[in-house]
C-alpha cells in the first residue's frame, strides 16, 4: 500500500519582551529579533548599552573574514552547527530562549535548465545544491533537448533516497519580437528607427516584427521597450505596415529582441499553436506543472484545464502574471489556477516599474489567502550570470520574497546559461535559509504562521503507486513541505511508528515535540468508514 508522508514545520513563535513606559524601552520592544548587525551591541548575548545611550552607541566596523556558503543540510558539513552557533535564530516562546535552527530550508528553489546545466552531472549537482523544481523554458530549445532533461530528472528521482525534483514546463506564449539582423545595430538617442510588419527586413534603420497587428496595437506617444527596458523608443507616427519611432534610450539592438509597449498588452491569444504543441509534449511526459505565459483572463485557465481533463492527466497550472491586462482580472485568474508566478520582467515593462514590488506583495498575499502556490521570478541573481558573487540588492530581493511568504524563488538565466549556476543556487539557498531563521511567528505572512504550531505529518492513501509519485513530486514546490515516499502497513499504529521513526532518524522531529498526524484516502487504514483523521501526539 503506497503512501506519501509530507511533513511541514512552521516557525511559529512569540516575541517575549518586558513592557515599560519608557520610550526607549518601548522602541526596543518593537524591534525585530536580533540580527547580525545588532550583535555589535552585545557581549555574550547580553546587551551592554545603557538605556540613556540607546541612541548613541558607537558601532566599530571592520572587514570580516571570508565566509563559506552554508551547505544544503547538516549532513553535508559537520561544521554547519558551528557556523550558525551564536547567530540569533527563532525565539522559543516556551522558554524565552533562542532555539537551535532548523537546517532544512522551507522556501523552494526553481532552476531553469539550459546549456549550462542540461547534463546528468549538472542536474545531480543542482539537486544536491538545493534545486526543488526543474524548469523547462519552451522559448528555447526543441522537444529533443527538453526530452533529455525530463529523462534525466526522472532518472534522478528514481534513484534519490530522500529527495525529489518536480518538472515545470514554461510555455513561450504570445511574444512580440524583432526580426533577424545581419549584425547588431547601435541605436543612439534621438535617432529615427522603424519597425515594420513586412517580413525579412533588417537594415541599419528598419527591422521586421513577428506580429501582424503590431501597427494596430500602438499609437503615437506610446513608449516601446526592448528587452524589458534595456532600450526604449517613442512612437512618432505609423503607416499601414510600419511604425516610425525616435530612440529615447539607445543601445545595441540584436536579432529577435523582445518588444513591449508600456501599459499595453498585445492582442494575441495567451496560448499559441506552438504552446498547444508544447502542452501536448508535457502531457506525453507527465510533467508536474505548466507555467502559462501572459494569462489575461480566467477563461484561458479553464480552457487548459478542460484540455488536461479530457486528456486524462492531472497537471497543475501556474499562471504567469506578466501583462497589464492580467491585473484587473487578478482575483479570478488566480482562483481558476493552481498557483501563480510573479514574472517581474514583462510585468515591469508593461506597467510602471515602481508598481512591481507592490504587485509582488499583493499577488503573494492573494495566493496565500487562497491556499495557492506562488513563485517570485526574474532577475533574482541576474549578475551571477557573469559574476561569481551577487549584488547586495539581489540578496535583499531574495530575502524580501522569502519574508513575504513566497513558496518558491526562481533562477532563470543564472542556471540556464550562466557561468556560475551552482554558486547561484547555493547563494539562493543560504540567503533563504538565513532569512527564514529570523522570522518570528508573529511576523509571518498571513496564512502561514498561524496554521501550524507544530510539525505535521500528512498521510495520503491510494491504490496506485504512480499516483503517489506524482503527488510527491508536485509537493516539492510548496513552502515548508518535505514529501517523503514510504510504504504503509495495514495497522495504523505500526504505520505511525514507522513514520515517526523515519522522521526522527532524519532529524526532522525530536523527542518531546508535538506533531499532528493527518490521514486521508480512499481506503483508510483504520478499517472503518471514516476516510479522514487528525491526531496530535508527542514524539
From TrEMBL:
<dbReference type="InterPro" id="IPR036918">
    <property type="entry name" value="Pyrv_Knase_C_sf"/>
</dbReference>
<dbReference type="Pfam" id="PF00224">
    <property type="entry name" value="PK"/>
</dbReference>
<keyword id="KW-0547">Nucleotide-binding</keyword>
<dbReference type="InterPro" id="IPR015813">
    <property type="entry name" value="Pyrv/PenolPyrv_kinase-like_dom"/>
</dbReference>
<dbReference type="InterPro" id="IPR015793">
    <property type="entry name" value="Pyrv_Knase_brl"/>
</dbReference>
<keyword id="KW-0418">Kinase</keyword>
<dbReference type="GO" id="GO:0016301">
    <property type="term" value="F:kinase activity"/>
</dbReference>
<keyword id="KW-0324">Glycolysis</keyword>
<keyword id="KW-0479">Metal-binding</keyword>
<dbReference type="GO" id="GO:0005524">
    <property type="term" value="F:ATP binding"/>
</dbReference>
<dbReference type="Pfam" id="PF02887">
    <property type="entry name" value="PK_C"/>
</dbReference>
<dbReference type="InterPro" id="IPR015795">
    <property type="entry name" value="Pyrv_Knase_C"/>
</dbReference>
<dbReference type="InterPro" id="IPR001697">
    <property type="entry name" value="Pyr_Knase"/>
</dbReference>
<keyword id="KW-0808">Transferase</keyword>
<dbReference type="InterPro" id="IPR040442">
    <property type="entry name" value="Pyrv_kinase-like_dom_sf"/>
</dbReference>
<comment type="similarity">
    <text>Belongs to the pyruvate kinase family.</text>
</comment>
<keyword id="KW-0934">Plastid</keyword>
<dbReference type="GO" id="GO:0000287">
    <property type="term" value="F:magnesium ion binding"/>
</dbReference>
<feature type="domain" description="Pyruvate kinase C-terminal">
    <location>
        <begin position="468"/>
        <end position="520"/>
    </location>
</feature>
<keyword id="KW-0670">Pyruvate</keyword>
<keyword id="KW-0630">Potassium</keyword>
<dbReference type="GO" id="GO:0009570">
    <property type="term" value="C:chloroplast stroma"/>
</dbReference>
<keyword id="KW-0809">Transit peptide</keyword>
<dbReference type="InterPro" id="IPR011037">
    <property type="entry name" value="Pyrv_Knase-like_insert_dom_sf"/>
</dbReference>
<dbReference type="GO" id="GO:0004743">
    <property type="term" value="F:pyruvate kinase activity"/>
</dbReference>
<keyword id="KW-0150">Chloroplast</keyword>
<feature type="domain" description="Pyruvate kinase barrel">
    <location>
        <begin position="105"/>
        <end position="425"/>
    </location>
</feature>
<comment type="pathway">
    <text>Carbohydrate degradation; glycolysis; pyruvate from D-glyceraldehyde 3-phosphate: step 5/5.</text>
</comment>
<dbReference type="InterPro" id="IPR015806">
    <property type="entry name" value="Pyrv_Knase_insert_dom_sf"/>
</dbReference>
<dbReference type="InterPro" id="IPR018209">
    <property type="entry name" value="Pyrv_Knase_AS"/>
</dbReference>
<protein>
    <recommendedName>
        <fullName>Pyruvate kinase</fullName>
        <ecNumber>2.7.1.40</ecNumber>
    </recommendedName>
</protein>
<dbReference type="GO" id="GO:0030955">
    <property type="term" value="F:potassium ion binding"/>
</dbReference>
<keyword id="KW-0460">Magnesium</keyword>
<keyword id="KW-0067">ATP-binding</keyword>
